[in-house]
From TrEMBL:
InterPro entries from the UniProt entry: RNaseH-like_sf, RNaseH_domain, RNaseH_sf
Lineage: Eukaryota, Metazoa, Ecdysozoa, Arthropoda, Chelicerata
GO MF terms, alphabetically ordered: nucleic acid binding; RNA-DNA hybrid ribonuclease activity
Protein name: RNase H type-1 domain-containing protein
UniProt cross-references to Gene3D superfamilies, sorted A to Z: Ribonuclease H-like superfamily/Ribonuclease H (3.30.420.10)
A Pfam family annotated for this UniProt entry: RNase_H
RNase H type-1 domain ranges (all copies): 52-80
Length: 154
């Protein structure tokens, strides 16, 4: 957009994979805005390109606050989700970690459910998922469980 006007100069739409983070989307948008001039030619040296620009400014805008440019960007982003192909699909580290964590929890829960050990403890915690949903400190849990099931606390 042209500063101090509501005139849209050029619109670029890109679809990111569903597991991409908001941070990735913001950085990809900034990268694409600076790496393509408006004739569609790729600019290979971003720093050289930025030196040719006399003035640019990035500002944070509260979401859905009625700022015209931001509302238009939200509309274009929504339209971009309907594009048939991904323009960017690199998996963020956080997504990979969550997959590994979910697999580990699933295996842990399967072991817990099929184990013959801990029958008294299973009364309080029928599944690993239930235990993880509780917002209590592990020290407190281990103290109560050891007391209830008869183990000594030293």
């Amino acid at each position: 957009m042209v500063p101090d006007t509501d005139r849209i100069v050029h619109v670029l739409k890109f679809r990111l994979s569903d597991y991409c983070t908001v941070f990735q989307a913001e950085l990809f948008g900034i990268y694409q805005a600076f790496c393509k001039d408006f004739r569609g030619l790729m600019v290979f040296d971003l720093s050289l390109y930025l030196l040719q620009i006399r003035h640019f400014c990035l500002n944070w805008v509260r979401a859905h606050s009625g700022v015209y440019g931001n509302e238009m960007a939200d509309l274009f982003a929504k339209e971009a989700t309907m594009l048939p192909f991904f323009d960017y699909d690199l998996c963020p580290v956080s997504f990979g970690k969550s997959i590994v964590k979910n697999i580990a929890r699933y295996n842990w829960n399967q072991n817990w459910l099929t184990s013959e050990n801990g029958r008294r403890t299973k009364v309080f915690f029928p599944s690993i998922y239930y235990r993880l949903s509780l917002d209590i400190k592990m020290d407190f849990i281990s103290c109560v469980v050891k007391t209830v099931v008869g183990n000594r606390i030293y």
